Structures are given as structure tokens and as C-alpha cells.
Automatic annotation (TrEMBL):
Catalytic activity entry: 6-(2-amino-2-carboxyethyl)-7,8-dioxo-1,2,3,4,7,8-hexahydroquinoline-2,4-dicarboxylate + 3 O2 = pyrroloquinoline quinone + 2 H2O2 + 2 H2O + H(+)
Pfam families according to UniProt: TENA_THI-4
InterPro entries in UniProt: Haem_Oase-like_multi-hlx, PqqC, PqqC-like, Thiaminase-2/PQQC
Source organism of this protein record: Cereibacter changlensis JA139
Keyword Oxidoreductase on entry: yes
Transmembrane regions listed in the UniProt entry: none
Record's keyword terms, sorted: Oxidoreductase, PQQ biosynthesis
Family designation: Belongs to the PqqC family.
Keyword Oxidoreductase: yes
Name this protein carries in UniProt: Pyrroloquinoline-quinone synthase
One of the GO biological process terms: pyrroloquinoline quinone biosynthetic process
């Protein structure tokens, strides 16, 4: 990887000679590349999708949700440092829950139940788009194969998540009669969970990326992750808005 890889959508990276310069670059990446900008999200939040299209989104997003604990378990496995493992551990519980307490995956299934999807079908992941599977699996592999610093950096899209969650809660409640506050609890909960996670990751990379090369690697990790998110929406749009559903993928009822 070159230090200042040219990106047509981003300004010149500059020297990345400080944590502040790196943070400014990370925020620019979020501003220009986060999936809040994707047309599929504009349709979703603006009430312009049919119930079947919203079902397709929720079904595919389940694959992302259910892979996050696998990803976080891999991140934990990268650290011999006990303090970092302890800090990261709560993410597993946030998503998986624990005995007697529901987690994010259960809350996501309440959303797919509310949309009328069969739980066993959702959990089987049989109907997800191939591109969803490839993108999400690439994220899990990334945190295992890149440096531990890049593994942590890749979750920093969450810095930009609260704004999109707010838009989604308000937009979907306002526009769809099949959406109610009960099924939006997943996003309500993330409004407090995501900032904690993102703030830890940002502080971590600010402290541990000590050279311009390491700071560039952190920025590249965030770019990779914005691609992971973006490509999932490209695939949803192609399949369910343009209408080219790949063989074997979920087909909404007419
Ligand atoms: O709805 C969204 O737009 C959105 C985005 C992201 C993200 O930015 O990766 C996450 C989530 N939601 C989310 O709910 C979540 O649990 C989550 C975990 C992570 C991660 O990379 O560890 N990202 C995200």
C-alpha cells in the first residue's frame, strides 16, 4: 500500500504526521463514503420502498448483524493484552445477549418477525444475496489477517452510525404503516452502544498509530469498511430496485 494512495473522491491525504491529521482524514472518509449517502438508504428512510423491499433489506442485514460477534471474537483473538480483550468483550454481549438478557441479534429478529419474515428462514441465511455474504465474510477475514491496529480501526464507521440510526428510526416510523416503535428497538439501543464503541476505537488508533505509515493503514482500514457497507446496498439496489434478483436469493411476495 502506498502512503498517500490517490482517491478520486477524497482530497490529498497530507502528511498524516499527527493523530489530529489522521482524525481529520478519518472524518473526511466518513463524510464522503459512509453508506448514509447511498441511494438505497434514501429510498428506505424516505418511505419509497415496498414492504417486500424492506424485508429484503432486513433479511440481508441479518447476515451482517449475526456476523458481527464472529468478527469481534476474531478481534479479541488478536490481542495478548488482557485490558484490550476485556474492553472489547462487551460487544459480544451487546449482540449475542446473555442468559436472561436479550441482545441485538434477538432485537433484529424482532424486526424481521415484525416484517412478517419466517425466523427459521432468516436465521438460515439461505436467502441472502451473494454480494452480502462476500462483503461481510471479507470483513470477518480482514480483522483476522490485517494488523490488530487495522482490525480495531475497521469498526470506526460506527462513528457515523448514530446519525443514520436517528434518520432511520424517524423516517421508517413516519413512512411505513408496517413499522412500529417495538420493531425499531434495535436502532434505539445502538444510539448509546455505537458511540461508546466508536470512541474507544478512535482513542485507541490515536494512541497506537504512531507513524505516518500506521496512520495511513488506519485510514485504509476505514475505507475498506466503507466499501463493505456500500457494496451491500449496491447489491440490494440491483436486486430489489432494478429487479435483477440472483438465483436462489429471497424473492418478495408480489
Ligand atoms: O445501521 C447501520 O447503518 C449500521 C452501521 C454500522 C457500521 O457503521 O458498521 C454498524 C451498525 N449499524 C450496527 O448496528 C452494528 O452493530 C455495528 C457493529 C459494527 C462494527 O463494525 O463492529 N458496525 C455496526
Amino acid at each position: 500500500m502506498t502512503l498517500d494512495m490517490v482517491r478520486s473522491d477524497l482530497g490529498p491525504a497530507g502528511p498524516l504526521d499527527s493523530a489530529d491529521a489522521m482524525e481529520a482524514r478519518l472524518r473526511e472518509i466518513g463524510e464522503k463514503r459512509y453508506h448514509n449517502l447511498h441511494p438505497f438508504h434514501h429510498l428506505l428512510h424516505g418511505g419509497q420502498l415496498t414492504k417486500g423491499q424492506v424485508q429484503a433489506w432486513a433479511l440481508n442485514r441479518f447476515y451482517y448483524q449475526s456476523s458481527i460477534p464472529l468478527k469481534d471474537a476474531v478481534v479479541i483473538s488478536r490481542f495478548r493484552d488482557r485490558a484490550t480483550r476485556i474492553e472489547w468483550r462487551h460487544r459480544l454481549e451487546d449482540h449475542d445477549g446473555a442468559e436472561g438478557s436479550e441482545g441485538g441479534i434477538e432485537r433484529w429478529l424482532q424486526l424481521t418477525d415484525g416484517l412478517g419474515l419466517d425466523r427459521a428462514y432468516v436465521e438460515s441465511t439461505a436467502g441472502v444475496l451473494p454480494a452480502t455474504r462476500f462483503a461481510v465474510d471479507a470483513y470477518v477475514r480482514f480483522v483476522g489477517s490485517q494488523s490488530p491496529l487495522e482490525a480495531i480501526a475497521s469498526c470506526m464507521t460506527e462513528l457515523f452510525a448514530p446519525a443514520i440510526h436517528e434518520q432511520r428510526i424517524a423516517g421508517m416510523l413516519a413512512h411505513y404503516d408496517f413499522i412500529n416503535p417495538g420493531v425499531m428497538r434495535y436502532f434505539q439501543r445502538r444510539l448509546t452502544q455505537a458511540p461508546r464503541d466508536a470512541d474507544f476505537a478512535l482513542a485507541y488508533v490515536r494512541e497506537h498509530a504512531r507513524t505516518p505509515e500506521q496512520r495511513a493503514a488506519v485510514c485504509e482500514a476505514l475505507i475498506f469498511k466503507t466499501d463493505v457497507l456500500w457494496v451491500q446496498l449496491d447489491a440490494l439496489h440491483h436486486a430489489y430496485v432494478t429487479g435483477h434478483i440472483p438465483p436462489g436469493a429471497f424473492v418478495p411476495e408480489a
